[in-house]
Amino acid sequence: MSTTVEMNTVIEELVGLKKAIKGVERKKFLLINSLHHSSLHLISPVATSVEYDGYQFTAYAADLDIYGCGDSEYEAIEDLRQSIADLYYDLKDESLGKDLQKIWEYLRSIVSEE
After folding, report:
1. For the chain, how many structural domains are there in total?
2. What is the pLDDT of residue 83?
3. Which domain range does residue 46 map to?
């Protein structure tokens, strides 16, 4: 009986590892060239990684330490675009500490505002 329990435990662990490997395989990298925003435009592309964790897609811009999520890759990227625009306006209007000041300076170098 304990051998059956041990086998089931090993099988469950293997299934979990298989899912984790598939998650790594599904991670891809791309450049966002537009924010799809009426007033903000990218001067330089934003490096982004997109991955699926089995439940949702996540688009992450490491240089800005910001992400977007969605049920599809497209929705996650659109959410990230909106998050970048929101971050731009939030940081523009604030007194910033050292870390946020660095992000703001980077944002100003890659985003133009009409």
Report:
1. 1
2. 98
3. 2-113
